[in-house]
Amino acid sequence: MRKLLLLIIVVFTAIGFSARLFYLQIFDTSYENLSRSNAVKILYDYPQRGYIFDRNGKLLVANQPSYDVMGIPREIKAFDTLEFCKILNITKEHLQKQLKKARVYSRQLPSVIVPQLTKSEYAYLQEKMWKYEGFYIQKRSLRDYKTTTAANVLGFIGEVNNRIIKKRPYYRSGDLIGKQGIESAYENELRGVKGVKYIQKDRLNREIGPYKQGKLDTLPVRGKDLHLTIDIDLQEYGKKLMQNKRGGIVALEPSSGEILALVTAPSYDPDLLVGRKRSANYTKMYYDTIRKPLYDRGLLAEYPPGSPFKTINALIALEEGVINPEDRLSCYHGYVYGSRGRKMGCHSHPSPVNLVKGIAVSCNSYFAQVYRKIIEKYKPPQVGLDNWRKHLQSFGFGNFLGYDLPPGRPGRIPSAAYYDKIYPARNWRATTTLSNAIGQGEVVTTPIQLANMTAAIANRGFYYTPHMLKKIDYKPNPEPKFTTKNKTTISPIHFEKVIEGMAEVFTKGTASFLQVPGISICGKTGTAENFTKIDGVRTQLTDHSIFIAFAPKDNPKIALAVFVENGYWGARYAGRISSLMIEKYIKKEITLKRMEDWVLSHSLEEEYAKPLSGEPFKINQ
Amino acid sequence: MSNSNLGNIDWVSILVYFLLVIFGWVNIYSASLSEDATSYFDLNQPYGKQALWIGLSIFFIIIILATESKFFERFSSIIYIVSLISLLGLFVFGKTISGATSWYVFGGISIQPSEFAKTATALALAKYISDLQTNIKRFNHQIKAFLILILPALLIIGQPDAGSALVYAAFVFTMYREGITGIYLFLGFLAVTVFVLTLLFGATALVLTSLFVGILVYFFTKNKKNLVSKLLIYLAGIALFSFSVNYVFNNVFKQHHRDRFNIVLGKKVDAKGIGYNTNQSEIAIGSGGWFGTGWTQGTQTKGGFVPEQHTDYIFSTVGEEWGFVGSVLVILLFSILIIRALYIAERQRSQFSRVYCYSVASILFIHFFVNVGMVIGVVPTVGIPLPFFSYGGSGLWGFTMLVFIMIKLDADRMKKSF
To answer: Which among A110, A154, A277, B35 is least surrounded, fewest beta carbons within 10 Å?
Structure first.
């Protein structure tokens, strides 16, 4: 033992040291990064962000130069803060906050101290820059908007937050990233790849030449230019028509699924979110919970679809073979059902009606009976309802559509399980859910889903997933999802009768005053009841005005859905806006001057003020 | 030369010695490389000087191998006394460099006597223990042996250079090998353990835990004769030591001593202040990966982030530029050399040679353990060089003599006259 003690200690020491070295050198990789930040300075070369064009090649978004004041905390020496703040027009407290933030982020990596200087601030500061050791000016490019509309489509760019930096190591503090809209959806394409230069430093922080002879350095790659599917003229016109109203317009090209216009109202000028004013403006809009300018109603608003939903119920009934389009059903100002004689009301129109007339005059009674036939084809009603739901899902209802913009809502198509939950005894019947016949009740859809349904009807049975990107880098959008036909469960032959009905809406029906000379439009009006809570009391508000349409009837070029909140009835606002949008897109000019004047001169602001006034008010007047 | 028997020379030790010296120089070159360097042997640069020191060591090696083995035994007392005088002389003629008066300066050359005193002490201790009059198991002889060790150590502490003095603890291994009771080692080990645990968990917690352990031992021991009194002594000892550690640490130690312990125990993280050296050296080593960045390619080494990198922290250069593989190779070389020295010690016929060779192994081990342990952050910062690696003529020559006297004694081990 005496002879062996030191030998044993030596062996254990060797093993222990080797283990510690293994931990330091192989297992724990954080030391490698530390050595990088210690000895290697990294300079980034930011590429130009890609341009964004509309479908016709009109430039929507370009770049403008901007200058950020950067600081490296460990290199900052005492400096004249008063002068610094005066030049940059900031308070001392703000400067101290920024410096503290930079220190917390990293002592050796640069942080943005004052972002996005104006040109005059930049010019003045550059003269004095030598005084401020540890600071330098970094050139960056900011967005330069050539349009005042489509902010909801384009999105905006802003500084990355710490959460993103942690998750995606490409980004450094102060980098810009697309937030919302196209800027976010196609961030990787638009941003390009920043160039990196590594510089070897010594412990006194002096640069002693390129790191590894510049072998690791890379050149920046310019961002790719994008062409959108929207027609900016149509988009701007839509925005103009929606002034002083709330709601959304979604216009699609049925033959491709391309989104021609995606209007939400109220919206904002995208330039408000550029540069240093971004934060203040964004906060202001974010907290505007009444008008919600940041809320994309075209994609996010879930409304009851109202009467346009009748068209799809008609199609399901035809596919299921439960009606003959020529059968006429009676309407006695409504439809009485159930043992206790409940009644679904209807407005006055000639009775009885067949399918085409039923759509044209939007007869509630006709569709209540059609819906019953669909559900009651199978027993129990659970089976019938889920079968009905399956057809609806094939049109893209009840789920996210899969378009290429970030926000979305699934809407809701109730299932049998949904009703079983509400009625645990499972004793519900077709009549219990009768509101679904006319697009009220439990059904909710988003405007883009309705527009997509219209496109599927226009195509007589299929649709392409709506999308916003036409070309990347001047080459067609490579995403196969957007060139795959989505077939509905309805056979093409059944569409003609429904389309005939939708055409008659314009020729003889609820929208006969909305005809556009020379264009055969097929459409459907909709009026949806809606409620809000005022001081906890469920209160009915003026009905929403809804309209779907496509044109021309043969070989359709445009399909759209228009939603105007509290617009009273379908043809009143949404219908007029639809006709004007269609004329604008197909003829590129407006002949319906009087209709245009009417829309532009009518405001719903008074209507929107009613529930907030705190006083009793009347609706639907 | 005529009397020596080079046929018996230990080529393994010589080979490992040269591998270490050459690899050490390669790393000194990288760690002290600067742009205005002209050649590998530029005498204005540390690596150029080190090349010269290495050349001169060859000269020392030849002298040692040419000397009679008997010389070292017969003159060990004189060598020891000369060594003590040279240490004493420092207080009069010594030059103070970075706070310690450890050097004589002749012209451009500085000599550090403490690097040679280890060899002298090893010789003196070997002489004393191998004396026929000496029985190391006797307490008064242990005291005398202890005096031989403590004299140079005290002189070195006076410089002050506590790190170099710590090396004299190495001789405890030698004394244990030669027969002092293991209780000394056990008490030493217990003291270190109690010391570390007290700093980590506090004196009260430690004493309570010891009490608990004592009670457990009482219940699980069958022969309870005298057990209670033994356990009480054990407990009292621990409690006394633990509380005095607490007191000494907080009231006697200076702040920088406390910091050094706290950093290794992980109680204090201060990457910019006192912990800077250790932190930087861990970063440099950690960036090495499996195979390192390559010779003269280390960013930390190039940037000069690790202080004293060509002297005490030279192992961090190995870690960065030669990676895990290179570092483990160095650890292996040292282990081989130390184990070889142990092997050589055990094959000696004379007790003098055995004690000396065992001391060589112990001294090399302490240097290796403390230096590498400090650089990789498992031992508190203690400024002693890594043998053969660290820059410095005195250190290199001191270790060269230490090792080659061993080789010479070993080569002559078969001689009857010796």
So the answer is: B35
